[in-house]
Write a structure and sequence with these properties.
With about 180 residues, the chain is of the alpha+beta class. The protein has 6 helices and 4 strands.
Length: about 180
């Protein structure tokens, strides 16, 4: 590897790890909004924003949709371990992605990473995740969520989008052998 290539990689210009600024931004936004909620709301306090949206402070010891919330506490470390393991995989994946040509994938991975780590911070320090965005239609309520959850959801949707329409499919198609028959 030449000095120029080495410098580009370590500066983040040689691979998609340059997208880590977005992960950091998600973490900061997530933690700041949760801090605001904790400062201004007691547990279960709610403000109706409009007919579809409430801001309410809830604590989630489970995973998405409160999965395993009543499991007795062991699930906290399971979720921390899973999120940390996935985060390491995403970091390696971003490091191996080229800086250009995989923007949708890099964006998706950065969002999932930021969201996962935002919720890990809560689980480690608070033993639960602070959720506060409550969407509903009449009496039908969607599970309450937070900024980290939004980043994970958008990132996951972008991963699906990229798997169908991303540049990786075009690259694979271009590299496929053609028949002369």
């Amino acid at each position: 590897m030449t000095d120029t290539q080495d410098t580009d990689v370590t500066a983040g210009r040689g691979n998609a790890s340059a997208w880590l600024w977005l992960s950091a931004l998600v973490i900061v936004a997530d933690q700041f909004t949760k801090w605001l909620i904790v400062q201004r709301f007691e547990l279960y306090d709610r403000i109706e924003v409009n007919a579809l949206l409430n801001i309410t402070r809830l604590h989630n010891t489970g995973a998405a949709f409160s999965f395993l919330e009543d499991a007795g506490g062991w699930q906290r470390w399971l979720f921390v371990g899973l999120a940390c393991g996935i985060s390491v995989i995403i970091l390696v994946w971003l490091r191996r992605l080229p800086a250009r040509g995989q923007s949708w994938l890099a964006l998706a991975l950065a969002l999932v990473l930021g969201g996962a780590l935002g919720n890990v911070i809560d689980r480690v320090h608070l033993h639960y995740v602070v959720d506060f965005i409550q969407v509903h239609w009449g009496d039908a309520y969607f599970p309450t969520f937070n900024v980290a959850d939004m980043a994970i959801t958008v990132g996951a949707a972008l991963l699906v989008f990229d798997s169908f329409f991303g540049s990786g499919r075009k690259d694979a198609a271009a590299d496929a052998p053609t028949s002369d028959a």
